[in-house]
Design brief:
It is a single chain. This protein is mostly beta strands and 211 residues long. 2% of the residues lie in helices and 43% in strands. Strands 3, 5, 8, 11, 12 and 14 form a six-stranded antiparallel sheet that branches. The protein has a six-stranded antiparallel sheet with strand order 7-9-4-13-6-10, with no helix packed on it.
Length: 211
């Protein structure tokens, strides 16, 4: 007596009981994204963020004595930092002010961290391990509210413009991993002229992966 093909149990149903693959009419595996695109990396403790916890005055243009918020990947870290969401807003009405992303690289990386900021996991409250038992390692990315950037910095892209008025600036961009910082590279939120006193707040999120 002939026997039909044996099912391949590679999934679980909602009751966590092994279930066969779901195939479509052409025999292709049927896949549905269950969670948001960043869920897996966050759950496994690979996504981190840093943000200004008080308003700062931004430095002007590509000045290497930088003030604002800067993410750098130390030389020899062994990781690549893939940029996720970046955001900035002003709580003090500016003069005409352009806001954008600055990138740069030097073999030794950023070594002068004038005002280091705390780096956090996006698995909020995680310390030793994630809920699934995966260790949440110590992040390699460093975030500063002020530092000395090195190499030849470049404007990567504009984010927004604040005007002379009571209308304050708020910008948000999801880079979705389209910018990668290898060891020695950095990314910062910059303004074309110095920002208003204690008026700038920024945030940078990234994913850390082996090189």
């Amino acid at each position: 007596m002939s026997q039909g093909p044996l099912p391949f149990y590679s999934a679980q149903n909602p009751l966590k009981v092994p279930a066969p693959q779901h195939l479509d009419a052409q025999g292709a595996q049927y896949v549905v994204e269950r969670h948001g695109s960043s869920f897996g990396a966050t759950y496994n403790g690979n996504i981190y963020w840093g943000a200004n916890q008080a308003g700062v005055t931004t430095s002007a243009g590509l000045a290497t004595t930088y003030v604002g918020i800067c993410l750098s990947n130390p030389a020899g870290s062994g990781k690549n930092l893939a940029i996720g969401k970046v955001s900035a807003y002003l709580t003090v009405a500016p003069a005409v002010l352009g806001v954008g992303l600055i990138v740069g690289y030097a073999a030794a990386g950023v070594v002068t961290h004038t005002t280091p900021l705390t780096v956090y996991s996006d698995l909020i409250g995680a310390t030793a391990s994630a809920p699934n038992g995966t260790l949440v390692g110590t992040p390699v990315g460093l975030v500063d509210g002020a530092c000395t950037i090195v190499g030849t910095p470049l404007w990567r892209q504009p984010l927004g413009v604040g005007l002379v008025s009571a209308n304050l600036l708020s910008v948000w961009e999801d880079m979705n991993g389209s910018i990668i910082l290898p060891p020695g590279a950095y990314l910062a939120i910059g303004t074309n002229v110095a920002g208003p006193t204690s008026g700038f707040w920024g945030s940078i999120q990234w994913e850390e992966n082996p090189q």
